[in-house]
Amino acid sequence: MEASVILPILKKKLAFLSGGKDRRSGLILTIPLCLEQTNMDELSVTLDYLLSIPSEKCKARGFTVIVDGRKSQWNVVKTVVVMLQNVVPAEVSLVCVVKPDEFWDKKVTHFCFWKEKDRLGFEVILVSANKLTRYIEPCQLTEDFGGSLTYDHMDWLNKRLVFEKFTKESTSLLDELALINNGSDKGNQQEKERSVDLNFLPSVDPETVLQTGHELLSELQQRRFNGSDGGVSWSPMDDELLAQPQVVNWLEGPGSEQLRAQWGIGDSIRASQALQQKHEEIESQHSEWFAVYVELNQQIAALLNAGDEEDLVELKSLQQQLSDVCYRQASQLEFRQNLLQAALEFHGVAQDLSQQLDGLLGMLCVDVAPADGASIQQTLKLLEEKLKSVDVGLQGLREKGQGLLDQISNQASWAYGKDVTIENKENVDHIQGVMEDMQLRKQRCEDMVDVRRLKMLQMVQLFKCEEDAAQAVEWLSELLDALLKTHIRLGDDAQETKVLLEKHRKFVDVAQSTYDYGRQLLQATVVLCQSLRCTSRSSGDTLPRLNRVWKQFTIASEERVHRLEMAIAFHSNAEKILQDCPEEPEAINDEEQFDEIEAVGKSLLDRLTVPVVYPDGTEQYFGSPSDMASTAENIRDRMKLVNLKRQQLRHPEMVTTES
Description:
Layout: H1 7-11, E1 16-21, E2 27-32, H2 40-51, H3 56-60, E3 63-68, H4 74-87, E4 92-98, H5 117-120, E5 123-127, H6 153-185, H7 189-197, H8 206-223, H9 243-261, H10 269-306, H11 309-365, H12 373-409, H13 421-486, H14 494-532, H15 539-577, H16 585-588, H17 591-608, E6 612-613, E7 619-620, H18 625-650, H19 652-658
Parallel strand pairs: 2-3, 3-4, 4-5
Antiparallel strand pairs: 1-2, 6-7
């Protein structure tokens, strides 16, 4: 791969080899992450190119990779570290992640990669820029990290392009010169002609290539392109290993005692946050000793490469002891941090649930005074939604609590033989107490919701009864109106009048059912009001209205019955007299019957002109005046026929003369 092919990518300075070396003489590879999202494919291409530059011997010393995450996000840094495992799995010996002054997240600790060491194949440490000198000499660090090593990326890239161009042209020139020389040595005439065709001229000017080579060589010798400018070589001293017992003693002594003393989880969000802050301080103290461990580990590795065989066993034993102690301590720190984070989440869910229960209780303590059934239904729906939200919150609290209890139960596995049952019991009792308290509060709210639900359903039923009772009054008023305006015909004969009377009785039965239905509804409102201990707003007005309309209907109905009965009597007697062959002629001759028919007819006519008078003194007529006039005309016509029959019976000769 040539730099000219990927020049736009290389110009982005996604990664670079500054020329600096670590204390094992391994090259330093720097990955400066920026605010913008890093293109991982381009970074991978850049790493592949940079790693193709050093020799195999140089690669064997291993690389120290500096991942500058001060301007990036934690998830990007983590992705880059994992990428190194795939791109340079065997060459990386140490990865230094330079963290920002304000750390990414409380979940990100100095020890988050310790458990991944075996899988990654290299160590990863989080370090501030000013602490890099613990692992790399200042003269081998660039100015970005407080070092004195000068590095100009564009200058390096230009020199690299010149170098690759020189390499390509010189190789091509040598191949062409070899071909020309081979052609001149052959005796075959055809080959000589071909050589003549080549004109013995190479594709590039040899003088130009040589001049470029001399200039490049001079520049590289001056800048010591493959070395450091006056850097002092570093070699570990045996007495520096005296720090190893101090690391082990502190980690197994005061360091472990700090962790043993920190067993509480807090009883609130604020308390858990305070414990997290305290834990961060403990982590900071441990990080100082872990930094010493990393430095010692590098020193031991260098001694292993340069030491005698008889020292290898002891050195490896020291290295393993350091690794075991630090790994165990890092696991404990991570466990403690995860436990506090779980406790913080548990208390957060508990606080949210407590606020939900307070809101639900406040809603239940306010007296219900809705305006109608629809508002009651809406309030009831809101109540059910709040109760459902509490159910979800309580389930979430149980899950968080059980997860926290599971973590606490695992705490004994790293207690160094110390019995933490008593200390853990306080945490367990607190967690279980919070969950039980929330369960009891939720149960009390559920009981109150049941009572409120029953009350609200009764109120819905009360409103419904009042509405239906008012509707019954309207129906009864409509029946009364129909009775007065449409039930006016008295029939043209006795048979038709009897049919009208039967229909009227059925009509009255409907009105009676409507009245009874309204009374039952109003009685139900009284019972519901007594149960709810409230005063009905409408039943007190509805009952008098219902009774008043019913009384009016009863009076009008009775008047209708009287008229129909009188009409039946009138038509029945008139029809007997008007028969051509009467069965009882002597009865027909009775003047009293004619007088009676005439009297009934006149009474009926008089009754048609009389209005219906209600108890309150108001009056109402059946039908319109024209309707009454038409009915009266039919009665008069029948009375005329009866009078004519009467005249005929008195004077038979009138019938003969007319005949």
